[in-house]
Model the fold of this input.
Amino acid sequence: MNVALIGSGGREHALAYKIKQSDKLDKLFIVPGNAGTSVLGENLSLDTNNKESVVDFCREHDIDLVIVGPEIPLVDGLADVLRENNINVFGPNKNAAMIEGDKSFSKDLMKKYNIPTAEYKTYEKKDYLECISYLENISYPTVIKASGLAAGKGVAICNDMNEAKNYVDQCFKDNLFGESSDVLVIEEFLEGQEASVFAITDGEDYVLLPPAQDHKRRFDGDKGPNTGGMGAYAPTPLVTDEVLKRIEEEVIIPTIKAMKNEGREYSGCLYAGLMIKDGKPKVVEFNCRFGDPETQVVLPIIDGDLLELLYSASKGKINKEAVSYNGKTSVCIVAASDGYPGSYKKGFEITGLNNMPNGVVAFHAGTKLVGNKILTNGGRVLAVSSIVNSSDIKEAKELAYKALKNIHFEGMVYRTDISDKANILS
Ligand code: AMP
Ligand code: GLY
Done:
């Protein structure tokens, strides 16, 4: 099979690394990829906003499967155009990607189909006064979310009325996230611990991958601003077999059915971000793609043929035997540029990447190959994932941090407590 993988982050490096292991793979193109993916396939710059150029490329190179990594092209309808041109694609159509692209839609869907989630209200810009009067009468903390895409930064946890009003003003009056914050979802603050579960689905049937836990805040102890994710581990003991069964029965199955029933058949990776309290899951968000950095810990602990799984899902007949959990444990630490998720500098040389101990893979994210040097080129620069042959999370954590000590670049920052949450039961 010839495969085109769209994206340039750590998630895409991990996908490329796993797809490369498939016997079915012929040629792999990564669009645009990063320094890490360049040794697994051919990096290619192609304007994915120009959907026709992607179609032309697929035709010219006999592409058998396009895998779309990030949410933006999916929400923008790239999968639709590929399907209309009879090109196989892993990833939902635009009307299904709305499950991530429009939080007010996904909240209404969950309400309609009794899928457990936080209580909420939705306000449009024109309802400003009504929104403020609602905020005067609720208890705090409360959570305010931009309904549209905001690169993981559109959520504010407000501790009092002033903070809440301030955030609403920024969204409605100062257009903080442009059109993405023209509609706000205000929801109940949920306590508990978060987990991420990926369901690979063909629209009807599905395969669950091992549950992971992300660390979204920038600093140790879950302090500081939200980021795309500073590290993850899998599997997480937070999701026991019993909890996983509830997630499957109360969230995954009803959501796949609901989407089909709404005429928005969902094919691709359905990412459920969940809050677990006393063994009960509630949905915090859905994403229409694999998570980053969760993918960097989930893929190393599955055996089998990922390409076969994704291809069969894209063809509407998922091969449920294609992959299985291999009993291992993985911890991944993200190394970021000082300043991230705010502004940061780029272009620093990264050293030590070839010096990884056994059982560790370094996944590139914001990196760039210039001559024979690898330079920083983004906020989240890279992630090291350890893989140990047991369920010992502590051992996996130590190995990941040991590996990270070999890597250096100016302004490198990271959290030191990734996976410690595994010790706190919800
Ligand atoms: P989201 O982009 O919706 O996943 O939100 C980003 C982060 O904000 C989540 O990972 C949670 O840590 C936090 N968050 C979102 N919604 C809630 C909620 N209802 N209660 C508590 N925390 C939340
Ligand atoms: N790690 C969070 C996300 O991928 O949205």
About this structure: The chain is about 25% helix and 30% strand. The pocket of adenosine monophosphate (ligand 1) is lined by residues 118, 143, 145, 152, 155, 157, 187-190, 194, 216, 226, 273, 284-285 (CB under 6 Å). Residues 158 and 164 are 5 Å apart (CA to CA).
